[in-house]
Design brief:
By secondary structure, this protein is of the alpha+beta class. It folds into three domains: 170 residues, 2-Layer Sandwich (Alpha-Beta Plaits); 64 residues, MutS, DNA mismatch repair protein, domain I; 163 residues, 2-Layer Sandwich (Dna Ligase, domain 1). Helices cover 48% and strands 18% of the residues. The protein contains 17 helices and 14 strands. The protein has a five-stranded mixed sheet. Strands 9-13-11-12 form a four-stranded antiparallel sheet. The longest helix has 29 residues. It is globular, with a radius of gyration of 25 Å. The N terminus is likely disordered.
């Protein structure tokens, strides 16, 4: 009988196939993950916040969730995506701040400039996280380790921030490695067997793609650990199909996914939404908010060099039921068009109290794929769009006694948009 503390390996036939594939590729991947990124940036800007439970997200009196928090706040059980009311219950003495995404985006660009110095291909996952393919730039794990430590040192010396870095043979292993010694950590996982040795007796949720719902389904049939996945591989394949295959492969350390260099046009959609602090019955206010969201979407899309041919409206009612409406257009490039189309869709929905409203564009292409005929179309309609914008800004200024002249850039940076919308709600 096999001893309980032994490590299972993939059945021999499959193991040879995957081992040969891994050996041929000899991938070396670095995963960089910033430590409590938003909170760390705020602490860098204001050192008096250091050592205190800092919570970035909604205010305790508002609706919303925690975006991130300092490690001091995590000691109280606060974590990302937690309802802000629960966070306040756990940590009433915490310092609560709204996020400033424009600030974090600028820091993220500085981080990516550092990462690009080492990677042949870089795949950003978020503002604060990325996979770096250093297979050819490093050549071996020793040099990859040196690169990883250089990234950590440059992040600290140039930006005043810390990151955790993992070096491994695959994307899953690299991400696992970066999480192993957080914060400010470094860890290596060089082979699939090293990965298995590390993970074998951990909870099944430690495997990539196994979320709470999948874990619950596995638990129902008595599968709790990575070892259980290995031992009952065939049963999981039968029950979960393709997802089961992925789970079982990861349990044996198999992950042959490539690092995919980010291209703006790979973005599926660009959108902006806002959750009101109190439910809104005033559909004129919702119309006005759509205009500001449309302006914000246009700016986001332009920053990424993206153009759309579809427009979406999203609503969440007070009872938490959400609806989405969409339509295709010749061009979803300008705020005037985005606003007009979402306003038309808003006019056609059931008029009930609204908790959240959002606007977005989809069916995107990059600048290089933008046809001349579309450019001509945009040129012809540019004046019309500007008239729409000027007229609507005048209406909002009169309705809410707001002065938009020279302030638009400020309005669309960070939390200012939310404060403006809340001001409009209170004065509607």
């Amino acid at each position: 009988m096999r001893k309980r503390n032994s490590v299972l390996r993939l059945p021999e036939a499959n193991c040879n196939i995957y081992s040969d594939n891994i050996m041929q590729r000899r991938k070396i991947i670095i995963h960089v993950d910033m430590d409590a990124f938003y909170a760390s940036v705020e602490i860098r800007e204001n050192p008096s916040l250091a050592g205190k439970p800092l919570i970035i997200g909604a205010m305790p009196s508002e609706r919303g969730v925690v975006s991130t928090c300092s490690y001091e706040a995590r000691k109280y059980g606060v974590h990302s995506a937690m309802n802000i009311k629960e966070a306040y219950r756990l940590c009433p003495q915490g310092i609560y701040m709204h996020p400033d995404f424009e600030k974090y985006r600028k820091v993220s660009e500085q981080l990516r400039a550092i990462w690009n110095d080492y990677a042949v291909k870089m795949e950003p996952i978020a503002l604060d996280e990325a996979y770096l393919d250093v297979t050819y730039s490093a050549g071996n794990f020793e040099r990859a380790g040196e690169m990883a430590r250089e990234i950590k040192e440059r992040t600290r010396s140039e930006l005043g921030l810390t990151c955790s870095v993992g070096v491994a043979y695959s994307k899953t292993a690299a991400k696992t490695a970066s999480e192993e010694k957080k914060p400010d950590g470094y860890f290596e996982i060089r082979t699939a067997q090293d990965f298995v040795d590390l993970m074998i007796d951990r909870d099944v949720r430690s495997l990539y793609t196994v979320g709470a719902k999948t874990a619950e389904k596995l638990n129902r049939i008595g599968i709790y650990t990575v070892r259980d996945v290995q031992e009952r591989r065939n049963e999981i394949l039968d029950r979960f199909g393709r997802h089961g295959q992925l789970i079982t492969e990861l349990a044996f350390g198999i992950d042959d996914r490539e690092v995919t260099a980010y291209k703006p046009e790979d973005t599926k959609s660009v959108s902006r939404e806002v959750t009101f602090q109190e439910d809104v019955n005033n559909y004129q206010l919702l119309d006005d908010v759509l205009f500001l969201l449309a302006m914000s979407v246009e700016r986001r899309a332009r920053r990424k060099g993206l153009h759309g041919k579809g427009i979406t409206l999203k609503l969440t009612y007070a009872d938490m039921k959400s609806i989405t409406r969409s339509r295709t257009v010749t061009s979803a490039d300008r705020a005037g068009t985005i606003y007009q189309e979402t306003a038309r869709m808003l006019d056609q929905v059931n008029k009930r109290p609204v908790r959240l409203i959002g606007a977005g564009i989809y069916n995107l292409t990059g600048d290089e794929g933008w046809q001349l005929s579309i450019d001509d179309y945009l040129e012809e309609t540019a004046a019309e769009n500007q008239q729409i914008i000027d007229r609507k800004l005048t209406e909002l200024g009169e309705r809410y006694r707001l002065d938009f002249a020279g302030n638009l850039d400020k309005i669309f940076s960070g939390p200012t948009l939310y404060r403006t919308i809340e001001y409009m709600r209170k004065h509607s």
